Amino acid sequence: MTQRIIEISSPNFVTELQLESPANFAALFENHNPLCLEIGCGIGDFIEQMATIHPQRNFLAIDIYNKGCYKTCRRIDGAGLGNIRVMRIEARFLLDRYLSLNSLAAVYINCPDPWPKKRHRRRRLVNRDFLRALLYYLQPGGELFFSTDFTDYAEQVAPLVRDLPGYESQLGRLPETIPQDYPRSKYMRRFLDKGQPIHFIHCKKQESCASGCHLLTPVRAGFRTSWSSVEHG
Ligand SMILES: C[S@@+](CC[C@H](N)C(=O)[O-])C[C@H]1O[C@@H](n2cnc3c(N)ncnc32)[C@H](O)[C@@H]1O
Questions:
Q1: Taking CB atoms and a 6 Å cutoff, what residues make up the pocket around ligand 1?
Q2: 96, 143, 160, 197: which has the fewest Cβ within 10 Å?
Q3: Residue 142, pLDDT above cutoff 70
Q4: Pocket test for ligand 1, best of 60, 111, 126 (most atoms within 8 A of CB)
Q5: For 192, phi and psi rounded to 5 degrees?
Q6: For residue 1, what pLDDT is reported?
Q7: pLDDT over 60 (residue 230)
Q8: What does the pLDDT average to over 133-144?
Q9: Does position 22 have pLDDT exceeding 70, yes or no?
Q10: CB neighbours of 137 closer than 8 A, spacing ≥ 6?
Q11: pLDDT tens readout for residues 151-198
């Protein structure tokens, strides 16, 4: 079943047509503030809070889900926030095509799809290759925040972050339970309300690590091809 695509007319919604490769995000935001990326923004509740707390930072919120992008735009337009832009785009494709070396001050990944079945785990977004690739795009001292309700996913990511040269944990223990002052997303609230823990990982790209490895895995065409004929508002 195909879902109806909702037209998104928000001035904060960005299509690929507006971007060069690599993109000029300073032009897009009309300032040179640090750029932060949320991957899988869902309905935009997390990014609304982050952008409100950090008005001197720019936030790019992406999701592959049209309705999520629509809801995120409605939320930030309603809040009158000028430091968020929203894109419907696949994360690895965005990185590979539009971002450049040391361009990101922070990356947020909250409750990514857990792919709980063992045979599906290789579909998880955050794995060794992805973390190595992120080192290329994070600036030295740039931060990675990862949260998940899924214990197995946290236990997969924690040792990778601990052992990969280039990252340094900002927590005594990995994974840690989510801090009180970290903004809550819809999915986080869903699990916390049921008394289930949210596992949390926070690390930085080492200051001494000027570059990382570029994407090692090919960008999958799946999410892209189905969009080729779609107009994105
Ligand atoms: C489980 S939801 C969590 C949404 C939100 N982060 C939250 O915590 O409420 C995962 C979201 O990530 C998006 N997503 C999954 N894979 C993605 C990818 N490769 N690139 C961009 N977004 C992705 C999905 O469309 C979905 O909206």
A1: 39-40, 42, 62-65, 68, 90-91, 110-113, 125, 185-188
A2: 197
A3: yes
A4: 111
A5: -60, -40
A6: 59
A7: no
A8: 95
A9: yes
A10: 95, 99, 100, 101, 102, 103, 104, 107, 212
A11: 999 999 999 999 999 999 999 999 999 999 999 999 999 999 999 999
Residue 214: band (very low, low, confident or very high) from pLDDT cuts 50, 70, 90: low
At residue 108, the pLDDT reads 98
Q: What angle do CA 87, 71, 134 make, to 5 degrees?
A: 35
**In degrees rounded to 5, what are phi and psi of residue 121?**
-65, -25
Report the nearest-CA residue for atom 13 of ligand 1.
40
- Could you identify the atom of ligand 1 that is nearest to the CA of residue 112? 10
* 223 CA to centre of ligand 1 in angstroms: 13
pLDDT of residue 211: 64
Torsion sign over Cα 22, 24, 29, 34: positive
Q: Kindly give the distance from the C-alpha atom of residue 88 to the centroid of ligand 1, in angstroms, as a whole number.
A: 11
CB-based burial, 108-126: b 16+ in 10 Å, e otherwise = bbbbbebbeeeeeeeebeb
Find tokens 């009180």 and name the residue.
180
- Residue 96 host element (H or E): helix 91-98
Instruction: Return d(Cα 49, Cα 76) in angstroms, integer.
Output: 10
Quick one: tokens of 116? 């709980």
**Domains of the chain (ranges, CATH numbers):** 31-225 (3.40.50.150)
- Ligand 1 atom nearest the C-alpha of 94 is 20
For ligand 1, what atom is nearest to the CA of residue 90?
20
Tell me how far the alpha carbon of residue 41 lies from the centroid of ligand 1, in angstroms.
6
The model's pTM: 0.93
